[in-house]
Amino acid sequence: MFPAFSRPVRQLLGPCLLACIQACTAAESAVALPPPQVDIKASAVPGLQTAVFAGGCFWGVEAVFRHVKGVTSAVSGYAGGVAKSADYESVGSGTTGHAESVKVTYDPAKVSYGQLLTVFFSVAHDPTQLNRQGPDRGTQYRSAIFTTSDEQKRVAQAYVAQLDRAKAFGQPIVTEIVALPAFYPAEAYHQNYLALHPTQPYIVFNDLPKLANLKTQFPGLYVAN
Questions:
Q1: Distance (Å, rounded) from C-alpha 163 to C-alpha 157?
Q2: Exposed e or buried b per residue across 140-167, where buried means at least 16 C-beta atoms within 10 angstroms of its C-beta
Q3: How far apart, in whole angstroms, are the C-alpha atoms of residue 161 and residue 166?
Q4: N or C: which terminal CB in the chain sees fewer CB atoms within 10 Å?
């Protein structure tokens, strides 16, 4: 894990210094999880649906969901705060209440909400980290599920309870589950960031391993795009 440098500072670090830091750290590992015992049937939600997740820096979370079968789009943005607008600088200050989030549009006939939850908890982030994720610190990097329906809330709460009962992580899950108040798309330069900057050090160390884990843990859901 990187020391708690801000992301812009890490971007300025040279490759040699990054290598030294990385030699003393370990990239996030995936956790093999059981499927949800409670899910939403495809027949109950015809047509494309929306799910919103927050799990640290949105670059990696977005990239993971872009490679999940049945996902038609994944958009980085901000959600969960009281501010009626959002941008990278204000959210990064930690004063807006917003979290870096990803809006996932998906076809429930191809991938269920429960399957998206499994990917989210298993490879997209670590749900036991409170108000942080990997090298990033602050409530803007918290773990959260912003539900868009009562059914999503029911399934998400049931899955968290199922995983906690099974002690799937060895520590309690701290993911908050709240109704989505609003979603604000992030600036254009944040969208599809991993695909456009695959050699950026932050991406190489923190996010490319998530895609590798997705392919290994969920071969039936992974799509190369």
A1: 10
A2: bbbbbbbbbbebbeebbebbbebbeeee
A3: 9
A4: C
Collapsing DSSP states into helix, strand and coil, what is residue 130? coil
Whether 27 is covered by a domain: the verdict is yes
Q: Does residue 222 lie within any of the structural domains?
A: no
Binned at pLDDT 50, 70 and 90, residue 21 comes out as very low
In a domain, 103, yes or no: yes
Range of the domain at 153: 7-32+47-217
CATH code of the domain containing 65: 3.30.1060.10
pTM: 0.89
User: Is 50 exceeded by the pLDDT of residue 16?
Assistant: no
pLDDT tens-digit series, residues 128-165: 999 999 999 999 999 999 999 999 999 999 999 999 99
- What total number of domains does the chain contain? 1
| Of 111, 117, 141, nearest in space to 220 by CA | 111
Q: Which of 16, 20, 24, 57 is catalytic?
A: 57
Separation of alpha carbons 182 and 80, rounded Å: 7
Residue 37 lies in a domain: no
pLDDT tens digit sequence for 32-60: 999 999 999 999 988 999 999 999 999 99
